[in-house]
Amino acid sequence: MDHTTSVNPRPTLTLQQATKVIEQLYGVTITEISTLPSYIDQNFLVVDKEGTKHVLKIMNSEESKRTTLLEVQTLAMSFLRQHEVPAQTAVPTTTGQLMSMEEIDCGHGVQTYCVRLLTYIPGKTIQRSQVTMQDLYHVGKLAATVDKTLQQVSSKMVSPNLDVLLKYDTLWSLLNIPLLEGYLSVMDGDPLQEVVKAVIEQYKSHVQPKIISFQKGIIHGDLNDQNIIVIPIDTGHHEVSGILDFSLLVNGCYVFELAITIMYLMLENPSPLDVGGAVLAGWESIMQLNDDERDSLFLLVLGRLCQSLVYGRHNVKKYPDNKSYILTTAKSGSRLLVKLWELGKKEVERKWFSDARTFLVSK
User: What's the CA gap between 266 and 254, in Å, rounded?
Assistant: First the structure.
């Protein structure tokens, strides 16, 4: 996400500051605390004197200004957990609040940050796990289940603020692929820039006219390989133990969720072209794509890949101290983009849809 500000919005609390915040807000005594990776927020793993683990999440100061949006995201997490979707959820403060706005000085003046203490989910990110195609089928199924469950939010999750999800707009939305053009200078001198330009042009001509027919609702918006936690089960398979980070929750298009999930799960997989069919089969066991969505899937996957590569380079200039995390996609993402582009829409879709049919027949 990109917000212009004169002060770095990324929180940089010391371990002592983070410990003090937890003890004051939650009344728990911390015995261990360590940092966890994050894009432009700050995360800590904490252990209390009973041995219970939690994650302290400090939102960046720009996102923290969107208090209504943060409230809806936090409520959606709880709603999913109540409906047996393994979402990470917020722990109430001593006064019963699920989030708290705190004024903290990280060394560049006092700023207001949204603070939440979240449940700890055991396991590893799917990025660091050797998952099977069967596992990926189940991830696709869970991604669709998340969105299907969120369909109920507007009727069951009583919040007058749900319309904030309609108004929320971010550079990362797959509606906003054309906005990449304003950031292409970060790729000057890189031959990949021409591929990105071509993806944007094809998106504008082939995808944009079809968006009106896409099925819409509330989506997680960022089911990437670092926001899905898995644990190993029998015979080398894994199951999802948790879904993290609802900061891109939005009223969007369901096929966007599918495209984002496929893209990120391809990144570290030794057989990236096999991923799409398995995830698609899982998704369609819950929600069927229509013809326009099917015809747009390839370019939506490429669009998200381009966003990740371009905004990654842009944000590294803003947050050089977090370079390794921000450029996580860059290593394998550049190779993947070239590979998919060279194979072309027709060939990749033929494989995905053929694999998905085979997968469903064998189920």
Answer: 19
